[in-house]
Amino acid sequence: MNFDAVPFPVLYSFILWAIVIGSATSIVLVISLMATIVSVGVRGPLVFANELGAMVGDLISLSPRRIFALAQLTFREAIRRKALMVFVVFAILFMFAGWFMSSSNLAPEFQVKIYVSFVLRAISWLILPVVLLLACWGIPEDIRLRSMHTVVTKPARRLELVIGRMVGYSFVGLIVLAVMSVVGWGWINRQLPVAAQSQLVCRQPIEGGLTFLDREGNPSEKGINVGDIRMFHSFIEGATKARAIWTFNGVGDQSLDREGNLLLENRFQAFRSHKGDMRRSIYFQYTFVNPETNVRVPYPLKTIDEGRGRTDRINRTLVNVGESADGKKYDIVNDLVTKSGQLTVEVACVDPGQYLGMARPDLFVRTADLPFAYGYFKAVACIGMMMLLVIFMGVSVSTFVKGPVATFLVFSVVMVSYTARDFMGKIVGDPFVLAKAREWSGQLDMQKLEGGGVLESIYRILWHMNPTTDLPVGASTTIMKWIDAGLVNFLWLVYRVIPNLDYFGQSMQYVANGFDVRFDACVLPCILTTLAYFGPCVLLGYFALRVRELEAK
User: Fold this and answer.
1) For domain 205-366, is the CATH number 1.10.510?
2) Which of 37, 188, 438, 444 is a Cys-bridge partner for 44, taking CB atoms 3.0 to 4.6 Å apart?
């Protein structure tokens, strides 16, 4: 995989969520209070307090029965609006997709990646527009056709109406998603070439930490950058003391396969400083190290499988064929794994003048594989979480704008999250975005984007000043920086309001590459992100629907 799976910071994210919700709620309440004072006058604060009290009363007296009735009504309306016609497009797409995807020239793992990626992307690209249109057009159409007047005159509260809409559209989306996912799973198993069926697995890797030694044998945080702008992979020089050192935790008898072998899977890259024999792969060597007993056991040379990766079966009993060549036998679990269950593996490039590239996920201990369906339906569940998130935002936005505007607004939020959120994170100084930028660029001291805020950037452009030049000291410079700081703080709030959709897309990459979808790094963030937006979207939709004049179409 071309990304490093990092566990989701739950506590840090919860604190940020509380800060953002508190800030956004304060801004909305202050603006609403000022608007009430302007429209009502001196009695504005009293009227505003009464409205807040009524809203709290509605929250306390929610009725699950009324919510279910409204959800059932929403479900029937969605069916009448031909929401299930998406199955026709889905069926046509899958009927003819196999004609254009079968190729015996590709390696099996690439065939699996193509088929799985196609199915998961087809599901997400077909279901998300359907639920987006349903969620964004439902309430505005009810207001336009005056059918909502019949509902709000009943005992049903407007808060229950918003929740009922969300639940009803979620039922529709989940039914469509369930049918599509089962059909897609069967299509993959049926259409995938027989030669690639063995690659349709769900790997469970034990990933380790990665450190480096430079060509002199000194510790280093990174390897060599061979000129790639995105330095996700670091390289070690061949025939030197340069090493890539992995430390795996939790290795024991349960980590071995049925035959008692240790499976090490690598996806190393090669960089050739001279042509040499292009028909011969670059050689590398494993060395198993126990730092507690200072035992070092080299393993016979291996060649990398460029562009594909390979799995090496390491026999549990190793014979020392290194420099000492004492011929002593070592047991991997009993002699080379420390008492805390840590296994250290050094990787060296053997060929002089050639370089071996790797990142932390490029070497792992492969444990027993799980069935493909295990990871596939996890990825489908992540797509379902994203679908629910779109429904929540669509229903919430549709309570204060019309259908076309709501659709455009939610679609814009999704596109900004995919295309510009990382750039916004660099401006506001998000530590996780900067850490990812450092990982890809190799700049260990990378901080926020230089050049200052909006006004400072305009000033530098007009006066032809580069970002590293200090601004002249003065009152105007101070005021300009204060205004820029306020704008950056507002941008920070906007940046935090926009959902991070990277986690939802990562689930597809896991399954397409034959890995289990990690719960702590992918599934848990999807669940928490969806839940984090449910409450605020409900309250925003209820507040907007309560203060809105329903007679205004």
Assistant:
1) no
2) 37
